[in-house]
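Quick log. Single chain, no ligands specified.
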Amino acid sequence: MEGKEIRVNNIQKKLLILSYYWPPSGGSGVQRWMYFAKYLKKLGYEPIVISVDEKKASYPNIDYSLLKEVEGIRVIKTTTREPLRWYSFLLSGDVKKGIPQGEIKTRNLIGKFLAFIRGNYFIPDARKGWIPFAIEEAEKLIKQEEIKELVTSGPPHSTHLAGLKLKKLFDLNWWADFRDPWTDIFYNNSLYRSTKAISKDRALEKEVLQKADGIITTVGGNFINQLKDKATKQKFSVIPNGYDADLMQNVQAAPKKTGLHIVYTGLLTQNQEYEVLLKVINDCSKNFKIHFSLAGNIHIDIIKKITLALPDVKVEFLGYISHYNAISLMKSADLLLNFIFKGAENEMISGKLLEYVASEVPILSFGNPQSEAGLLLNKGSNSWMVENNNKSKIKLILKSLKDKKVKNRFPQLSQWSRLTLTKKLIKVIFSK
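-> predicted structure:
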């Protein structure tokens, strides 16, 4: 490897990873460190993971197919105390659904009350009940195996509090990985937080930022600048989300659909803008056939809304599907859709968006063209970040794809592969 020499003895090649999300947890939160662990092992390092027992966790999705990605990796799973399970039950009647992702439901009194409880009593988050158990297991491992390298990954950002405690107890090189913002996350403004709660949360964030040996983020720009303002002397490294080249190569496209096949995968909420797109799709469907496939965490009310808005379109909702099936669906598309959360336009480039890019299928995303994600998509031969009210451009894109299958080429795509990114991670954590 280029750069500084990387230490190679067995003890120093171990990396302890604390991550609440781990297979068989599904969804986007699990994939970053799942793939880092996979390729760390392939590159001769020993990732050791502490996570939570999935029977006790508040995982909104389960995907057993992901277990094959982490075969042979040492994982210690702990119990937890989950106030989130009761929050979930009051909100949805199901203790396993967890907190709604990407939005805060405050349209009725119960929703407002639960948002207040969440924002003022679950600080920094409702999964903090896992932390004492994670610390207990980590202490044993660090003592027994003389581990020197530690990563904590958030959200949930309470995981970083375990890093704080372990750093005080042991001589560790601790890196805190921020997959998303902490106190600056877009939905915090909807939580009816008191001044005291806001102050407490900010103090915890600042302590983590200042006492970790380094901070890793998924993207630069506004996201990292917000963190740098709180820890001016800290080391920051940007290691983005990515795609797994093996997966992209080995998964076959699902059977072709009749007409222009538009695909959306992932979370879709009321906090994303899609109404204008529906009007354009409806207009276009009067002139050519369109098949609209959706898969992921999407409330049935949103599916009904989409179906009613598109009477001449074949709307197919597949529900939550495995990661492998999601890739297969992506590769079958003529156009992939992406919607940025309102208020999060400048904060992140999701792993899903990088998988979209790697599929080589044209991409239409809605958000700020000058955001980090917008600048990324601008590099593709057939990918666009469009402001959601730009009906003429949306219609032009759909019409341009109706009669031909085109590729979306990206320069230097391999820089986003999970293998390449893991090599970068090794240089950040293990180089001295």
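The first helix runs from residue 31 to 42.
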